[in-house]
Each structure stands twice: as C-alpha cells, then as structure tokens.
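Sequence in, structure out. Go.
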Amino acid sequence: MVFSVHHWAAWAPGLVGQDAWRSWLSQPHPLPSEGTPPLTEMPPMMRRRVDRLGRIALQAAYTCQADGPACPLVFASRYGDMGRSVDLLEQLAKSTPLSPTSFSLSVHNAIGGLYSIARGDLTAQSAVAAGAETVEAAFVEACGLLGEGAPEVVVIVYDEPRPVPFQHFPEQVSLAHAWACSVRPAGDGPRFRLSCHAADGARPAPLPEGIAEELSVLRFLALDDQRLERVLGSRLWRWERDV
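Output:
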C-alpha cells in the first residue's frame, strides 16, 4: 500500500505542536503524567461529557482536520476508554446504579461519535482495535477507503496507561497521547509504503531509548527515517518512505 500524508498533529502532556513533538521524538526526555487539552473547538455542553482520553484524542483530530472538508475517519485505540469501563464494573460490583451517559460513552466508537455529532459530520467512520497491530490495521482500513474512492481519510490513534486493576499486565502504554494524520492517495506530499511479511525470526532494530513502541510509527512519519520494521506476532510490518 502506497499513500501520502498531507498533515499530522499530536497531543500529550507537555507536548503541543509539531516542533515540540519532533524535538522530543529526536531526543526523548521525561514528560508530565498530568495534563488535559482545552478542546475549545468543541461546544462546552458536549465537551463536559468527554473524559481525559477523549479530549486528548479529539484535540489531535480537531488540530489535524481543522476546518477542512468532511472525510472518512478511522479512530484507532488498542485499549479504548478502559478507565471508564473499570469505573462501571466497580459500580456493578457495589450494586450502584450505572450512569446511562457513562455507559454509552464506554464503547469503543463513542469518542468518534461525539466528534461527528459536534461537527455535524455524516461521513463514514470506523473504530479499530487490533492489539499490537492497531496502528497498522488503522492504515489498512484507511487505504481501503482510499481505494474505494475517498479523496482523504483522517486516522486518529490514541491510548493511555491502563488503570490500576490492569497495570500489572505486560505491554503497558507509557503515556497518554494521541496523534492524527490525513492520508491521501499517493501524490503530492510525503509518500509512504506499508507492507506485511512473514516474520520468519526477523528482529527489528531497537528504538531509541525513551521512545515507547506505541509511538514508533509516529516517530517514523514525523522524522526523516527511511524505514521502520515492527515484528508483531507472526507478521513483520514494514513502513518505508517512498522516494
């Protein structure tokens, strides 16, 4: 699959704007764990319904899409709003009545739904969760939409550290973050190629110290690296800068 990236945006506590992200991705340093974006683009009444992870995801989406035309959206998160789900489960365990609003916002496509309602956007959108391959699955989905004739697709990737009951599980997300990029058919703008191969014992080069695996694709897209290989299970995903 070959595609172009027209624009990208990202948000994490202590990192706002492309320059700040490029600097940090080049030379990582400790970041604050607390912080929430203002999300002033969303109407206040609706913004109050969005929790921290949703605000982070939507801030990246709004910044990337800005006032651009409506287009298909792919929201991708490995774990989704797990904190809200844990709160609901704890309420069930205590036989406490559940909030219908909180329940409706706990599903994986809720953040995308709020975004489309706030913007009055009726175009297609998907919610993707594919374990360690979530980012790759999101771009496969985006390229499929481009192949069906969409002129542009916005991919939004977001996650945060898992809540206390699940913090002992492996493959923990290192920091709350979101990034978004507008993907277009190969043409003007930086061109990239994504391909999938059998892993066959391949061992990719280690990432720079301080860069977590979940941010490796953003680092590849934002900087000038020519290739990124990710071995995930039995598959090797190869990202290449097409020249």
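Check: Residues 74 and 155 are 5 Å apart (CA to CA). The mean pLDDT is 88.
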